[in-house]
Structures are given as C-alpha cells and as structure tokens.
From TrEMBL:
Protein localization: Cell membrane
Protein name: Methionine ABC transporter permease
Family as reported in the entry's similarity comment: Belongs to the binding-protein-dependent transport system permease family.
Upper lineage: Bacteria, Bacillati, Bacillota, Bacilli, Bacillales
Topology of the protein relative to the lipid bilayer: Multi-pass membrane protein
Organism: Gracilibacillus marinus
Length: 220
C-alpha cells in the first residue's frame, strides 16, 4: 500500500466527516425546499384543496425537468450557479449546492407520493367540518402521511449518500473523492474497500433508523 499507515486512518476520518457534512447540510436544505414543494404539488392538483391547473402544470414540469438530469451532469451544468452561491466549485461546501438542486425535486415528488396516499374521505370529512386549507394540510394530510413521509425521506437520504460519493469525481471531497484519488487513480485497493464498506454501513444505519422511526410513528 503506497499511502502511509500514519495517514491512512486520518484521511479516512477526514473524508468521512466531509461526507457526513455534505449529506447532512444538503438533506437539511433539500427538506426545507422539497417538503413545501411536495405539499404545493398536492394541494394545487386539479380537483384538490386549492386546485390550480396552470400552476400545477408549471411546477410539475419544472420538477420533472430537474429530476431528469443525471447528477454528474447537473454538477457540471450548474457550476456558474455554484460559484455565485459559494464562491468556488471545489470542496465540500460547493458540493452541497448541486446536491440540493438534485435532491429537492426528488424529495418533493416523494412527499407528493406520500400525501396522495391519504384517503380522500379523510380530507372530505375535514372540509365538511369547516377546516381551512392550512388546517387540512398540517392537521390531516401531514399527520396521516407521516409514517410514509419518514420512509420516503429515508430513501432520499440514501440517495444523497450515493450522490455525495459521485461528487468526489469533480473535487467534491468526501469518501467518493478519496476512493477516486487513491483507490482508483493510485490503485490503492485498501482505500477503495474501506470507503465502500463505510458507505454500506451508512446506508444500513440510515435505513434501519428510518424503518424504526416510521414504525413507531405509524398512526393506529
């Protein structure tokens, strides 16, 4: 192994922290954007609470457009935007921007899917009792779909872990960057194995936690 043992674990540790930062911050910002977008997609759907066909058609088209772009291409395509926001296109902070642009529409679609699982009869009952739109959203829709929302957010988090690894291909830092710089370019098999195992562990932990949280929050 070419890389010195004295720097092996420090490099792994630093890359792990960078990956956790990328996933954590990008997930936070993606949720802040994606959840409201998902709710808006549902309530503006024709025939729904505040149906608006034109608005729904435009928003639905924008989300479909962003979701259709592969992440590795998206990273390169929005380099000017990333530079405006962060001031650079290299490093962990710079990788958060494309990760958010990538994940927010995906989360919006997952949120839409979860909310659409709520029985229309429950919504109609709330409307019959005189509930206002915001009351229906936060007291009926979201609570009824909460368990499903957690599972879908878990799926989105796992997707972000994979995307953060791809961000290493263009200098995004993290385990993906370490795997490419040492495991691929320098043929350091040990580095590649450790990074893959760490990513697998992250995915397993996130999925297990999401499953448990979803189960405990399921409405009886």
């Amino acid at each position: 192994m070419d890389i010195k043992l004295s720097t092996f674990w420090p490099n792994i540790w630093e890359a792990t922290i960078q990956t956790l930062q990328m996933v954590g911050f990008s997930l936070l910002f993606s949720l802040l954007i994606g959840i409201p977008l998902g709710i808006i997609l549902v309530i503006t759907r024709p025939g729904n609470i505040i149906g608006n066909q034109t608005f729904f058609f435009i928003l639905n088209g924008v989300i479909n457009f962003l979701r259709s772009i592969p992440f590795i291409i998206l990273m390169v395509a929005i380099i000017p935007f990333t530079r405006i926001i962060i001031g650079t296109t290299i490093g962990t902070a710079a990788a958060v921007v494309p990760l958010v642009v990538y994940a927010a529409p995906y989360i919006a679609r997952l949120v839409e899917s979860s909310l659409l699982e709520v029985s229309p009869g429950v919504i109609e009952a709330a409307e019959a009792m005189g509930a206002k739109p915001h009351q229906i959203i936060f007291r009926v829709l979201v609570p009824e779909a909460f368990s499903s929302l957690i599972l879908n957010i878990t799926i989105a988090t796992i997707g972000l872990i994979g995307a953060s690894a791809m961000a290493g291909a263009v200098g995004g830092g993290g385990l993906g960057d370490l795997a490419i710089a040492y495991g691929y370019q320098r043929f350091e098999t040990d580095i590649m194995i450790v990074t893959v195992l760490l990513l697998v562990v992250f995915v397993q932990l996130v999925q297990s936690f999401g499953n448990k949280l979803s189960k405990t929050s399921r409405r009886r």
